[in-house]
Amino acid sequence: MDGSELLARDSELLWHPYSSLTSPAPARLVRGASGTRLSLDDGAGGQVDAIDAMSSWWCMIHGYRHPVLDEALHRQIDDFSHVMFGGLTHEPAVRLGERLVEVTPDSLRHVFFCDSGSVSVEVAIKLALQYQVSRGRTGRTRMLTVRGGYHGDTFAPMSVCDPVNGMHTLFTGALKEQLFGPRPPAGYERTADDPELASWMTVMSALADEFAHEIAAIIVEPILQGTGGMYPYSPDALKFLRGLADQHGFLLILDEIATGFGRTGTMFASEHAGIEPDILCVGKALTGGYMSMAAMLCTSEVGEVVSNGPGGALMHGPTFMANPLACAVALASLDLLLSQDWAEGIARISAGLATGLKPAADLPGVKDVRVLGAVGVVQLDHPVDVPRMTDAVLSRGVWVRPFRDLVYTMPPYVCTDEDIAAIGAAITGAIAEGN
């Protein structure tokens, strides 16, 4: 089918994410992808190439059609593509588990593979609840978190997403009622003696004190809230939450699905604060974007308490858990990342984004410009006209997916300096054209 026919069939058949079925937003047809480029159908029988400044929703860190990752999949599919993980195991799963334990914080010693990031959060919450039951604390059935968070689209993760300004307000009343404190005050550089941060700590302490008998765990995105607004906060706030959990016997769950594997400049964002979680969720970049896969890691203490408690097991088991193809490509992706000076690469991208986006700060309608690691954000003082902004940036050779009041980029780590400069110029130029 030609491009126009495919797009017409798409609009009749397929329901895209966060989109109306009857009045869908326009979709663009991808004909190919290689390196940092998407090849898009131009509607006239040709193609137009664009830098994917989104890493396909933050997961395609090595770009498209990377020969190392392609080879890993070819090798594994020649052996077998899938086996159940109940009662069976295989080398790619064992080796990937070893690698994840090596690269994550030292206290995390055990790995549970999941289908997606949202499912890993489901499993983490279930684990925290089982932990408290196993400790005899049967009343501890709620999570403590902060406003502005996003943890996924299945039911338990939805319950810990922002209930007012998040994407799941339609489900209020159907979701478990969790405890929400205010967002930490914005700003990576704030320290514990900052008055606003100190005030936030006081509020969180009061919540924890009042509801300690109900709280099983604290769950947050460390240092950078993603879909909640690309919102950075202080490492001292994260240190405080670690201490709060220790003080009251809560577990600390860190959702590093978006921030893990180098995105913020450290391998995991918790390293900015020098703390370690009891439970860690990873996904997105885990497989380099090739397959859907995530993982939940926990400490030996957590695993042993649950394993020796009622039921004697973590009560979860996905059909496609530890899929061999996904494990093989995830292992190859991690080895590829670790084989290079990834930290220098992130610093290079960060500097390029800071330079490229800086002119946007002086444009009308721009509220803020911020960069953290390989994340660049231009925040407007009004909602983005998404179709117009997408077209304007794409006309400059770059693909972005704005949302709310944000035009942002999380580029692949393989972007050249020229790619990063092009991304900055395209975003700045499109905003200058009119936002």
Automatic annotation (TrEMBL):
One of its GO terms (molecular function) is transaminase activity. It is found in: Cytoplasm. The modification N6-(pyridoxal phosphate)lysine is found at residue 284. It is an enzyme of class 2 (transferase). Its EC number is 2.6.1.62. Substrate binds at residues 57, 150, 284, 317, 401. The record marks 18 as: Participates in the substrate recognition with KAPA and in a stacking interaction with the adenine ring of SAM. It catalyses: (8S)-8-amino-7-oxononanoate + S-adenosyl-L-methionine = S-adenosyl-4-methylsulfanyl-2-oxobutanoate + (7R,8S)-7,8-diammoniononanoate. Catalyzes the transfer of the alpha-amino group from S-adenosyl-L-methionine (SAM) to 7-keto-8-aminopelargonic acid (KAPA) to form 7,8-diaminopelargonic acid (DAPA). It is the only aminotransferase known to utilize SAM as an amino donor. This is Adenosylmethionine-8-amino-7-oxononanoate aminotransferase. The gene is bioA.
